[in-house]
Design a protein that fits this description.
The structure is a single chain. The protein is an alpha/beta fold. It has three domains: 104 residues, ATPase, nucleotide binding domain (Nucleotidyltransferase, domain 5), CATH 3.30.420.40; 91 residues; 62 residues, no CATH class. The protein has eleven helices and seven strands. The strands form two sheets. It has a five-stranded mixed β-sheet with strand order 3-2-1-4-5. Strand 4, helix 2 and strand 5 form a beta-alpha-beta unit. Helix 6 runs antiparallel to helix 7, helix 7 crosses helix 9 and helix 9 crosses helix 11. The radius of gyration is 25 Å and the shape is elongated.
């Protein structure tokens, strides 16, 4: 007889529940480590059909590591599972694991496609570069604000021009320079690291045929192309192009009940950052920058 397993994953421990023939046959807790979790599954559920857990920060690593151990892992949509799990009277990790095992047994879940490590590396590269650029912008605004307090207005300008203007204004203000120049040096260092990541991003895009094809579209730059390619991974993951729009959250929501039937705003489900990049690209058809 086949077994169905639910895993409630947390940072330190994972609750495990095993069902067979409509009844729970075992439950317990293990350290959140795929090798440790695979051991009791092989021992107590040798005919495991489905091993279900929810989406979360550890999903990518957890899914691929369990699959590598031969465990039939399935990652399901946490929002979809929440509606069923909320029916339990008491909210505990053990009860959540029981609920996930029950969902696995009846097949009432929505499986999520887990991205590969290569795609996640690309997404991490894009995210790291974006974060550094935000930090540099915040530092430059901080520098402008500090100097404005002392009547020093930094002229408009970016990059080396901004740095040169700041140093010129601080030439005869030694006490203020001792405070602002460390900020300026940190700003310069962050920009250098962001530029290095940008170079890696351009190199990766040039080696991808899909990215080169996307960048031939007016308004699509390196960041948008690589983000889109990493999110889609394989075009065969979608039945048609309209499915991609719904997956990103760009299709309208519908409400129908009785005589009422209307379309609302876009669903805004899926990758928020990718949706923002696509909007930005559509709004400016002359953008050829590194986004």
């Amino acid at each position: 007889m086949e077994e169905y397993i639910g895993l409630d994953v947390s940072m330190k421990e994972t609750a495990v529940s095993i069902r067979r023939g409509g009844q729970r046959v075992w439950r317990g807790k293990c350290i959140t480590d795929p090798a440790t979790i695979a051991a009791p599954i092989r021992k107590r559920a040798s005919a495991a059909r489905r091993v279900v857990f929810e989406t979360g920060p550890l999903s990518v690593w957890f899914y691929h590591a369990l699959r590598a151990k031969g465990v039939p892992a399935i990652c399901i949509d946490a929002r979809h599972a929440k509606a069923a799990l909320d029916m339990a009277r008491n909210k505990t990790d053990a009860n959540d694991a029981d609920g996930l095992a029950h969902l696995a047994e009846v097949g009432f879940f929505r499986e999520v496609r887990v991205k590969g490590f290569d795609s996640m590396l690309t997404r991490t590269l894009v995210g790291a570069r974006h974060q550094l650029i935000r930090m540099a912008t915040q530092l430059s605004n901080q520098i402008r604000g500090v100097m404005k307090t002392f009547g020093l207005l930094v002229p408009a300008g970016k990059g080396s021009k901004f740095e040169r203007n700041v140093r010129n204004l601080l030439a005869d203000r030694a006490e203020l320079a001792a405070i602002v120049l460390p900020l300026l040096e940190a700003w310069h260092g962050i920009r250098m690291r962001a530029a290095e990541l940008g170079t890696r991003l351009v190199s990766a895009a040039r080696q991808s045929q899909g990215c080169r094809l996307l960048m031939s579209i007016p308004g699509i730059g390196v960041v948008t192309a690589t983000s889109f390619a990493a999110a889609i991974e394989d075009p065969d993951n979608f039945k048609n192009s309209r499915s991609v729009g719904a997956w990103v959250g760009l299709t309208t929501r519908r409400y129908q009940s009785g005589e009422v039937d209307y379309d609302g705003h876009i669903s805004r489900r899926g990758d928020r950052n990718l949706r923002w990049l696509l909007y930005e690209s559509c709004g400016d058809h002359t953008d050829t920058r590194l986004n």
